[in-house]
């Protein structure tokens, strides 16, 4: 079981790029969801919170996003709805 857990922690998946397969490493403690690595220390997106780049990353719907412009988060301005404010990582 420990070997399997370690392997899952180290390998996040295999991607197909130009016909070649390669593996990517995940940070220790990261959670793998649907082929994406979600860092455990990132907070969930929260309405009413002020976000400011450059080092602002959040989780919304199990997906990691990076803030691209300073703003106050409001309902309706969720990361997938406002690409001018959030970039999917």
Automatic annotation (TrEMBL):
One cellular component term from this protein's GO annotations in UniProt: extracellular region
Read off the lineage from the record.
Bacteria, Bacillati, Actinomycetota, Actinomycetes, Streptosporangiales
Task: Show the GO MF annotations.
Answer: carbohydrate binding; hydrolase activity, hydrolyzing O-glycosyl compounds
Q: What does the entry give for GO biological process?
A: carbohydrate metabolic process
Q: Where is the signal peptide?
A: 1-25
Q: Is Signal one of the keywords?
A: yes
Pfam families per the UniProt record, alphabetical: CBM_5_12 (PF02839)
| Gene3D superfamilies tied to this protein | Carbohydrate-binding module superfamily 5/12
Sorted keywords for this record are: Hydrolase, Signal
List each copy of the Chitin-binding type-3 domain by range. Answer: 44-86
Q: What is this protein called?
A: Chitin-binding type-3 domain-containing protein
């Amino acid at each position: 079981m420990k070997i399997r857990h370690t392997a899952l922690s180290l390998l996040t998946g295999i991607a197909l790029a130009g016909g070649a397969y390669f593996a990517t490493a995940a940070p220790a403690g990261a959670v793998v969801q649907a082929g994406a690595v979600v860092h455990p220390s990132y907070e969930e997106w929260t309405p009413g919170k002020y976000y400011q780049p450059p080092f602002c990353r959040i989780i919304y719907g199990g997906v990691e996003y990076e803030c691209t412009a300073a703003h106050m988060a409001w309902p309706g301005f969720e990361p997938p709805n406002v690409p001018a404010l959030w970039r999917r990582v």
